[in-house]
Structures are given as C-alpha cells and as structure tokens.
Amino acid sequence: MSGSQPDTAAALESDHALLCAAARAGGAIAKRYFGGPFDVREKSPGDPVTEADLAVDAEIKRLILGERPEDAWLSEETADSPARLDARRVWIVDPIDGTKAFVAGRPEFAVSIALVENGRPIAAAIFNPITDEFIDAVRNGGTRCNGQRVQVTEESDTAALVLGTSHNELRRKLWRHLFPESEVEPVDAIAYKLGLLAAGRFDGVIALRPKSDWDIAAGDLLVHEAGGRMTDADGNVLRYNRAEIRHPNLVASGPAIHSALLARLRDR
User: Fold this and answer.
1) Cα–Cα distance measured from residue 220 to residue 239, given in angstroms and rounded to the nearest whole number
2) Which end of the chain has the lower number of beta carbons within 10 A, N or C?
3) Which residue in 252, 230, 257, 232 sits closest to 161, CA to CA?
4) Edge-to-edge strand order for the sheet containing 120-128?
C-alpha cells in the first residue's frame, strides 16, 4: 500500500502494524547502544544528539518510507522539508525522546512515532526498550500497554494526584507551587510521561516549556484513546504538521481533573 491508500479500517490497521514494527525495531537499536559507549555531540547548547539517535532515525525512516513512499516525514533528526505542509499524511518521529536521560544512563526515554492525518494523530506508539513498555493506539481503537487495554485514571481530588513533570521544570519552579497538595514526579521524556499517563501511572502531565510535534504527537493519541484529554494551557486541542511545529505548553490528564488543572494554571 502507498500513501494514497483509501481510508478504511484495514488500511489504518496496516499503517498501525507498520508503525509498531518500526517502533520495536528502533527500540532494539536504542537498547544496544544504551549504557554506551557512543558518540555524543551538541546540536545547540544543552541539546545533545548521539549516534544512537541517528541510527534509530535512519532505521525507522527506512522501514516506514520504504512501505509508504508517498507519505511525508517529520523527525527531530532529519532536515525538515516544507513539502510536508502539502501532505495529507505525515509520519512524525522522535527516535529517542529523552536523549539527556539516555546519555546519563537513566531509562527515562522512548522511541516515539505518530502517523498524523489532516493535523491530528491516527496511529501512534511509544516504546521504552529498557523497561519493556510498549504503548500504542489507533484512532477509535483504544490504547494498549504491552497488548493490554489501558485507561487514564478517574482521580478528581487534587490532594491525591500524581503529576508528571521534568527535572528541568521542577528546578525552574514553573508550576509546582500551584499544586502544593499533589505529588509531583519528574520523568524527563515527555513522550514517555504521556504514555505512562495513558497507562494510568500518572493522573496528569503538565509541561510549560515548549515542545515540538515529534515530542508529543504520539502521546496525544495515546492519551485521547485511553479516555483522557490533552490540550494547551488555554484548553485548545493541539494540531500537528503546521509550519510552526513548536507548542508553548500542554496539559494532559484524565477527564475528571482536566478543567481543574487548567484553572490552577491560569493563576500562575
């Protein structure tokens, strides 16, 4: 099948199977590199890339575009092409989300892949090959963790919440003070955090520093198909494959607490 295949359930399932196979293949490469040694350089100050990132990216691109050559591609480790803006379908990839943790030898990273159609994800997977957590979803098909259906939590009491953040946001004290009664747990990779939210390990995830399409497109579908909500801090649904791929913030959670999280954040 090519990128022009009809919009049928069978075609989407084929896309989903391809996406999951590519995520597993990428994860296997990342696992071989994990713990080093490997080459590391900085794309910009504080923004590392490793030979593992590049190897994972190359393998995922080979597998996916080999089967879907007419589709567009957007990855953190591939030069962007404006041609994607005219594409109905684009594969959005972060070969290793959480590179800093990967370099440090912490298993807080994930391979993240989403297939986006008309600005919204329709199939997605994140894979942490060290913890062996594979979380995937397809539009209107629910979210699974290692093959078992999962749901976001229904927690509505802010005193009982476990909220996911990053070590960086915690150090910067961006929003922790707004939830003094809640437990806040830092995990660096946003894609991995969103997968854990979808699987019920977090009640909410808040990020007030900018994220790119490749950081969050997969997690967006995982959260929504697990019954949750994910928006910007103003409550707007996020759109992908636009000229501007950066998103200033995000709030993801179960539906029972989402409005309360947004209300607290408006007071910051």
Assistant:
1) 10
2) C
3) 257
4) 72-75, 89-97, 110-117, 120-128, 133-138, 143-145, 148-150
Specify the 3-state DSSP secondary structure of 127. strand
Six-digit token pair at 16?
């989903």
Domain boundaries, the chain: 9-150, 158-266
Task: Locate 249 and state its tokens.
Answer: 């913030």
DSSP-H helix ranges across the chain: 9-33, 51-67, 99-104, 167-172, 190-198, 213-225, 258-266
What φ, ψ does residue 225 adopt, rounded to 5°? -70, -15
Q: Give every residue of the chain whose pLDDT is below 70, as ranges.
A: 1-7
Token duo for residue 87: 């594409």
Phi, psi of 148 (to 5 degrees): -105, 135
Q: Which CATH superfamily is domain 9-150 in?
A: Fructose-1,6-Bisphosphatase, subunit A, domain 1 (3.30.540.10)
Q: Which residues pair with 211 in a beta bridge?
A: 247
Q: What is the per-residue pLDDT across 37-81, written as a single tens digit (0 to 9) for each?
A: 999 999 999 899 999 999 999 999 999 999 999 999 999 999 999
